[in-house]
Design a protein that fits this description.
395 residues; Arc Repressor Mutant, subunit A; three-stranded antiparallel sheet; 17 helices; 5 strands; elongated; disordered N terminus; disordered C terminus
Amino acid sequence: MAIPHDLRSRNAASASTSSPHDKTHRAPGPFDAPVRIDADVEHRHASTMDALAQLAVAARVSLPLQGLVHVFELSEVVASIRLEGVPARLVDVFEFETTGHVDDEHGVTMVRNHVKAWSHARRVLADPRDASLASALARAHEQMAPPPGLMGNDPLEADATDVSDESADTSAADSRRFEFQASLAALEDPDAVDTEVASLPLLRVAIAAARIHAMELDPGRRGRLARLVVPLLLDDTEHIEAGFLRPSLALADREAEYRAALEALHNGNGLDEWTRFFLDIMHDAAEASTRVVADLQAILTRDRARLLGHARSTVTVLALLDRLLEYPVVSVPEVAEMLDTTDTTARKAVDLLAALDILRETSGKARNRVYAYHDVIHLLDTASDDHRPTKRRTT
């Protein structure tokens, strides 16, 4: 996936070799103040890149990557949706993936729309015929249900939208869509970021996020679009496992600061403060995810040891345990299909894990029961509380 023009240097070879300390750089977009790159910003950037590198190593060494990225990404999306005031739960999302049914359809639908938008934008950016950030975001918007006031009526929030005059609403939505897409097109400006800013990859992402925040026409959106695009931009940054990074959890820990930053960006200022805040959030998210990766490995090792010493343990039970990190909510038919075995064998494996309190039944039903790897779900759904990163000193 190519990094969009607004996020890469026009001529990397022309980078100045002098220290950028205390220099200011005019960022593109509706901002009154330039970006100030000083020793503090360089220190935060270097520290954050180091934390991200540690996360990449931990993820590659400790856990099976295939499939597990999806679990972390769902956790990030749930946290992002919660920032909008929707009481989404990770276990409900997994239960829906397993059974196709869930009690809280609103929260799960919001999460699924966000994931669809994410996937769609990634496909657009990966297409050499249309590797455009503006195009990816505009098309992703059609998949992600936005709050009313930007891209037309949100079918998930119809009760909060006045649809008494459909023609007026349609005209206003078309006008907003045109203005929004014109703003996105500005992100393709090849002169958008100078070389010294472009040499700091996270700063480039921070500025792109700031511009997207600023162009959101309705402050009630609460930063959803930028939270969608940041992982897309990080995907192309070397040594970063973007799929394991969950910045929305870190934002939730500092929500008051985040809201103030969004308001400032929406009003066309606060870019200098935003870049520092963004770097701190990325650092906190990387540090927290590194700890979660270690704890997931510890949970798996502990439970495997319990099964190896159990008289009723079988190869099927151990195989199921190994798949539960990727599929932490399962049903007996799903286990049978997953392990290519009979329903009877699958049920025996599930029953043993339930007897050891590794799996817990969550549906409360007598039939078509659903089981969750509760320690893993709890860890992923409460990581911002249980894995608060240590505070860093700034220069």
